[in-house]
Amino acid sequence: MALRPGRAVRSPTKRPWTRFSRSKPRKSFIKAMPHKDLHQFKMGAQKADFDMVVNLTSEEPVILRDNAIESARQTANKYLEENVAGAYSFVVRVYPHHIIRENKMIAGAGADRLQKGMRQAFGRPTDCAARLHKGTELFTIHSYKSNLPHVMVALERARRKLSGTYEIQTQ
């Protein structure tokens, strides 16, 4: 089954569904957690002598799926690994807690009449997402000032994979 487009779930005004308890499963909104696509949060060399910090910061509130964050992470990390291997530290600063629920409709043979379903149906958990507010740092890269052009290109490539608007901030 194909994913619904990101525009269907990126509105930050929707209520977050995050309660999942292993110790008290009857108290959970979520009975079974969907799998997460984002597994790595720290990449590169963890050195103490980096003299530059660059952040990718959200300029508006948005909900980002974990597979979009993973795609942006892979793009940026691959570029940095090819160009400045061992001279950077890359950190994903958000964790996908928000559970996306979807009311799946029946399709296939005999679907000559469209199914209406219920309004505001609760649905089943299908995916995980991160809720970003304005000013939230999504990615942080520590490196040397001589690598600034490569870091900027890597974050620009990552920014193209994400919905919403982002700013690259250098410290």
Show the helix and strand layout.
Blueprint: E1 42-44, E2 52-58, E3 62-65, H1 66-83, E4 88-92, E5 98-102, E6 124-132, E7 137-143, H2 148-160, E8 166-170
Antiparallel strand pairs: 1-4, 2-7, 2-8, 3-6, 4-7, 5-6
Structure description:
- The chain has 171 residues and is of the alpha+beta class.
- It has a domain at 42-102 and 122-171: Aldehyde Oxidoreductase, domain 3 (Alpha-Beta Complex), CATH 3.90.1170.10.
- The chain is 18% helix and 26% strand.
- The protein is elongated and about 60 Å long.
- Helix 1 (66-83) runs antiparallel to helix 2 (148-160).
- The strands form two sheets. It has a five-stranded antiparallel sheet, with helices on one face. Strands 3-6-5 form a three-stranded antiparallel sheet.
- The protein starts with 41 loop residues before the first strand and ends with a strand.
- The protein has two helices and eight strands; from the N terminus they run E-E-E-H-E-E-E-E-H-E.
- The chain has helices spanning 66-83, 148-160; strands spanning 42-44, 52-58, 62-65, 88-92, 98-102, 124-132, 137-143, 166-170.
Task: Report the CATH architecture of the domain at 42-102 and 122-171.
Answer: Alpha-Beta Complex
Instruction: Please tell me the overall pLDDT.
Output: 84
Q: What is the CA-based Rg, rounded?
A: 19 Å
How big a fraction of the residues is strand? Answer: 25-35%
The protein's oligomeric status is single chain
Structure at a glance:
This protein is an alpha+beta fold and 171 residues long. The protein has helices spanning 66-83, 148-160, and strands spanning 42-44, 52-58, 62-65, 88-92, 98-102, 124-132, 137-143, 166-170.
